[in-house]
Write a structure and sequence with these properties.
This protein has about 70 residues and is an all-alpha fold. The protein is about 80% helix and about 0% strand. The protein is built from 2 helices and no strands. Helix 1 (about 10-40) packs antiparallel against helix 2. The protein is elongated.
Length: about 70
């Protein structure tokens, strides 16, 4: 394992992306009981999952940027 030194801007972007991903995953967890209990359309779950997938891709891309050694 190696240390990664982040700029304040990188740290803030990672925190924001992680927070957004967390909110999206919470949305997925809330959509399933709503579908079961209230008969919400299945597309609500598809939307929640799509948002979570996009947020995780964004977070992964940011992590890749800060983990890549200079020059890659």
């Amino acid at each position: 394992m190696r240390a990664i030194i982040l700029t304040e801007a990188q740290w803030n972007r990672l925190k924001a992306a992680a927070g957004h991903a967390s909110e999206c995953m919470f949305g997925v967890s809330m959509a399933q009981p709503a579908i079961a209990e209230f008969g919400s359309p299945a597309h609500d779950m598809q939307i929640a999952v799509g948002q979570a997938e996009n947020a995780m891709r964004e977070l992964s891309a940011l992590l890749g940027e800060v983990e890549a050694p200079d020059g890659e």
